[in-house]
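User: My instructor asked us to take a sequence, write out its structure as tokens, and then describe one feature of it. I'm not sure where to start. Here is the sequence I was given:
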Amino acid sequence: MTALGAPAERREGPDKVSGAARYAAEQHPAGRLFARPVPATVARGEVTGVDVSAALALPGVVAVLTPDDAPRLAEPDDPTLAVLQNRQVPHRGWFVALVVADGPEAARAGAGAVRVDYAQEAHDVTLRAGHPRAYVPEEVNGTFPGERRQGDAEGAFAAADVRVDVGYRVPPLHNHPMEPHASTAHWDGERLTVHTSSQGTTAVRATLARMFGLEEERITVVAEHVGGGFGSKGTPRPDVVLATMASWHTGRPVTVVLPRRMMPTSVGHRAPTLHRLRLGADRDGRLTSLTHEVTTHSSRIKEFVEYAAVPAGVMYAAPHRHTVHRVVRLDVPTPSWMRAPGEAPGMYALESAMDELADALGMDPVDLRVRNEPETEPDSGKPFSSRHLVECLREGARRFGWAGRDPRPRGRTEGPWLLGTGVAAATYPVQAYPSTAAAQALADGSFLVEVNAADIGTGARTVLAQIAADALDVPLDRVRIRVGSSDLPSAPLAGGSSGTASWGWAVHEACLRLAARLAAHRGPLPARGLRERADTEGKADADSAFARHAFGAHFAEVAVDSVTGEVRVRRLLGVYAAGRILNPRTARSQFVGGMTMGLGMALTENSTVDAAFGDFPESDLAGYHVPAHADVPDIEAHWIDEHDPHLNPVGGKGIGEIGIVGTAAAVGNAVHHATGVRLRELPLTPDRVLTALLNHRGPDAD
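Assistant: Let's start with the prediction itself. The structure tokens for your sequence are:
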């Protein structure tokens, strides 16, 4: 057995469970201070005055930074990082002051004592279809066209034998990693060291260098352990700028930990999306027309678009198709990356609409998806590097017992419980970015591999060590891995399910070069050992002649309480085609984690933007409910053996995000099967389900 493909245990596990692992806020430099931001309490306006006298009079408060006296920084590429640089308030929760104290309690008390006056302006925070300021961006996040037309989707829809024209709503959703966003900054003369909770310290160093006018070589950014991110830590956030600013101002180390209640307005969120799906098909179930329209919001200061219509160009064969994204710039916090951005809400809508089409046709929903399997990627026309969605659907159906399903809604009951099952497909793109890595053979017979990867709880250290051991053809226990510091060979962030593919490519090449050098070496190694380095620029980012995606199929069984409207998921099952599975143990953990997050999206996770105050009322884990272990008594993740030679040297596809993509739709489709009622707005909370059930029974129902 080779190291690669073995179910190796995570290397950092003992340190994490014993408390030896240290996170960004758990650094203890001498003289450390703590800082707490003061968020704006208006939805739009300007700061007219800040009274800091009461805060400075409190014991332990050292300083208060305001827009009038905070250090002036260079303009960042990301406007959300321009904190305390002017008096404008673009949205509620924007930071308008920073209190620095000798302890976290003193900083909190000081922040509560700061008095801020505002000149308020009229605001608009409400997303609605047909908003007069909605527009179609030329490009979505600089990557996808805002609108895409192929053929005559409208004409084909009008002429279709069977038509589905439906709308869906997904609310704002929030990243809630276990470790809040935190940074500890320390200036030592002209050198800056920052420990931060980040999915990529190379980018953090570049940002700090630009904003503070430093050479990158004078900055070290460390993220040795990161307690989750789900996209919210993919780019630098205000905490790292504030900690660095406060340390510069005071001359002492400073830690900033964003309170969880501040995170929804300061670290990004998944923007709400309004969907309209129009599917036209012939009587045999073959799609003739597919239209997916998405309306979403972004902030006044930065355009970020939840590109939810993009999967419609990947999934199903339809000769006529139209996708469009409309954006409304509102007085809201800037949305950002959240696990499977675009695909998660987009596939919820598309896969729900496919289920509705199956109902209209009287066709099994698995068979409908199989019938519309494309030969090439519909949007680009490129051949797929590999596509085994049909195999995932069939294997999932076999494992789930789909063949014994009664297709009629509301056909199974257990007392007051209505039982149902549902299915949905999933897809996520294969991505890789240039990376560097170094491999060193040491005189004691061990090997050291260095790459500035970020292990955000995925087991990256372990899998990279396996890739190295495989390339070097040595036992796994002879390989040591160093990650999580900008002083290491530069690497891209952990995001877009691209981490292992990007870093592993460079590690693989560096280790192959080292192995070749060792094979040619004669005599003992020098005291410093032998070292090789690899850079995949021009390879990892080269254009491909193939459309490269992972695929999967999700199956769900639910029980719906007809008295209370409560939905209980009894079973979740996912089957994936994700290239070579490099470590079955960590892969299963990622798949299950994604499915659990998809369950939360379906049933419990909900946020709103308060029209009067411009705030997210569900700002902590008491109001924003994430699923717990008890919410899924039976969850399974499986995969098929897939060999794809058109990816990267190790043959793996990203797996961190595809688990969430189809789960919400599978649960929603199962709820429809159980109740006979179609709910088109997430989450499927008891109040919504019960209201739908009562309306379904008619006005005279008990």
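For the description part of your assignment, you could build on this observation: The chain has a mean pLDDT of 97. Try explaining in your own words what that tells you about the chain.
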